[in-house]
Amino acid sequence: MKIKVTTLYVDDQEKALRFYTEVLGFVKKADVSQGPYRWLTVASPEEPDGTELHLELNSNPAAKAFQEATFQQGQPAAMFYVDDAQAEYDRVQGLGAKFTMPPTKVTGSTIAMVDDTCGNLIQIAALDRPGS
Length: 132
Known about the structure:
- Helix content is 25%, strand content 41%.
- The chain is an alpha/beta fold and 132 residues long.
- The chain is globular.
Protein backbone atom coordinates (compact mmCIF):
# COMPACT_ATOMS: atom_id res chain seq x y z
CA MET A 1 0.00 0.00 0.00
CA LYS A 2 1.24 3.48 -0.89
CA ILE A 3 0.11 7.03 -0.22
CA LYS A 4 -0.58 8.39 -3.70
CA VAL A 5 -2.59 11.57 -3.00
CA THR A 6 -3.16 13.68 0.08
CA THR A 7 -5.57 16.62 0.22
CA LEU A 8 -4.91 20.15 1.35
CA TYR A 9 -7.91 22.48 1.45
CA VAL A 10 -7.36 25.93 -0.09
CA ASP A 11 -9.57 28.99 -0.42
CA ASP A 12 -8.50 29.71 -4.01
CA GLN A 13 -7.14 27.06 -6.36
CA GLU A 14 -5.46 29.49 -8.78
CA LYS A 15 -3.71 31.31 -5.95
CA ALA A 16 -2.71 27.95 -4.46
CA LEU A 17 -1.35 26.71 -7.78
CA ARG A 18 0.81 29.84 -8.09
CA PHE A 19 2.12 29.52 -4.53
CA TYR A 20 2.89 25.82 -4.67
CA THR A 21 4.53 25.96 -8.10
CA GLU A 22 6.10 29.43 -8.36
CA VAL A 23 7.13 29.83 -4.71
CA LEU A 24 7.63 26.34 -3.29
CA GLY A 25 8.74 24.85 -6.59
CA PHE A 26 6.33 21.95 -7.02
CA VAL A 27 5.13 21.00 -10.50
CA LYS A 28 1.52 20.76 -11.65
CA LYS A 29 0.61 17.10 -12.01
CA ALA A 30 -3.13 17.06 -12.78
CA ASP A 31 -5.63 19.77 -13.66
CA VAL A 32 -9.01 18.42 -14.72
CA SER A 33 -12.37 20.18 -14.50
CA GLN A 34 -15.90 18.89 -14.73
CA GLY A 35 -18.50 21.58 -14.30
CA PRO A 36 -17.60 23.61 -11.22
CA TYR A 37 -15.35 20.84 -9.83
CA ARG A 38 -11.60 20.99 -10.44
CA TRP A 39 -9.16 18.19 -9.60
CA LEU A 40 -5.81 19.96 -9.14
CA THR A 41 -2.63 18.28 -7.90
CA VAL A 42 1.04 19.17 -7.62
CA ALA A 43 4.06 16.99 -6.98
CA SER A 44 7.69 17.36 -6.06
CA PRO A 45 10.00 17.74 -9.06
CA GLU A 46 12.36 15.44 -7.14
CA GLU A 47 9.68 12.69 -7.15
CA PRO A 48 7.33 13.52 -10.04
CA ASP A 49 5.66 10.11 -9.81
CA GLY A 50 5.53 10.21 -6.01
CA THR A 51 2.81 11.45 -3.70
CA GLU A 52 0.61 14.19 -5.13
CA LEU A 53 -0.76 17.10 -3.12
CA HIS A 54 -4.42 17.64 -4.04
CA LEU A 55 -5.30 21.34 -3.78
CA GLU A 56 -9.00 21.00 -2.99
CA LEU A 57 -11.26 24.06 -3.01
CA ASN A 58 -12.51 24.48 0.52
CA SER A 59 -16.28 24.45 0.04
CA ASN A 60 -16.94 21.91 2.80
CA PRO A 61 -18.10 23.79 5.95
CA ALA A 62 -16.63 21.22 8.36
CA ALA A 63 -13.27 21.22 6.60
CA LYS A 64 -13.28 25.02 6.43
CA ALA A 65 -13.89 25.30 10.18
CA PHE A 66 -11.06 22.82 10.86
CA GLN A 67 -8.73 24.68 8.47
CA GLU A 68 -9.45 28.04 10.11
CA ALA A 69 -9.03 26.69 13.65
CA THR A 70 -5.79 24.93 12.76
CA PHE A 71 -4.41 28.12 11.20
CA GLN A 72 -5.44 30.23 14.22
CA GLN A 73 -3.68 27.77 16.54
CA GLY A 74 -0.50 28.03 14.47
CA GLN A 75 -0.56 24.36 13.49
CA PRO A 76 0.83 23.26 10.14
CA ALA A 77 -1.52 21.70 7.60
CA ALA A 78 1.41 19.90 5.95
CA MET A 79 5.13 19.36 6.39
CA PHE A 80 7.67 19.28 3.58
CA TYR A 81 11.25 18.11 3.98
CA VAL A 82 14.28 19.97 2.64
CA ASP A 83 18.02 19.45 2.97
CA ASP A 84 18.73 22.93 4.36
CA ALA A 85 15.97 24.86 6.16
CA GLN A 86 17.88 28.15 6.19
CA ALA A 87 18.64 28.02 2.46
CA GLU A 88 15.01 27.16 1.66
CA TYR A 89 13.79 29.94 3.95
CA ASP A 90 16.05 32.44 2.16
CA ARG A 91 14.96 31.21 -1.29
CA VAL A 92 11.22 31.18 -0.55
CA GLN A 93 11.28 34.47 1.35
CA GLY A 94 13.09 36.01 -1.63
CA LEU A 95 10.07 35.01 -3.74
CA GLY A 96 7.76 36.98 -1.45
CA ALA A 97 6.58 34.25 0.94
CA LYS A 98 5.58 35.31 4.44
CA PHE A 99 6.93 33.19 7.27
CA THR A 100 5.26 32.99 10.66
CA MET A 101 8.35 31.30 12.11
CA PRO A 102 11.93 31.60 10.85
CA PRO A 103 14.21 28.56 10.84
CA THR A 104 14.27 27.32 14.43
CA LYS A 105 16.31 24.50 15.90
CA VAL A 106 14.11 21.92 17.64
CA THR A 107 14.77 18.36 18.74
CA GLY A 108 16.15 16.45 15.78
CA SER A 109 15.50 19.08 13.12
CA THR A 110 15.30 22.71 12.06
CA ILE A 111 11.83 23.92 11.13
CA ALA A 112 10.25 27.05 9.65
CA MET A 113 6.59 27.91 9.08
CA VAL A 114 5.25 29.67 5.98
CA ASP A 115 1.76 31.02 5.23
CA ASP A 116 0.59 29.54 1.90
CA THR A 117 -1.76 32.54 1.32
CA CYS A 118 -4.65 30.07 0.91
CA GLY A 119 -5.56 29.43 4.54
CA ASN A 120 -2.76 27.09 5.63
CA LEU A 121 0.52 27.11 7.47
CA ILE A 122 3.16 24.87 5.94
CA GLN A 123 6.08 23.57 7.95
CA ILE A 124 9.42 23.22 6.21
CA ALA A 125 11.74 20.82 8.02
CA ALA A 126 15.35 19.74 7.67
CA LEU A 127 16.25 16.68 9.71
CA ASP A 128 19.51 16.73 11.62
CA ARG A 129 22.17 14.47 10.20
CA PRO A 130 24.66 12.70 12.44
CA GLY A 131 27.80 14.76 12.78
CA SER A 132 26.19 18.03 11.68
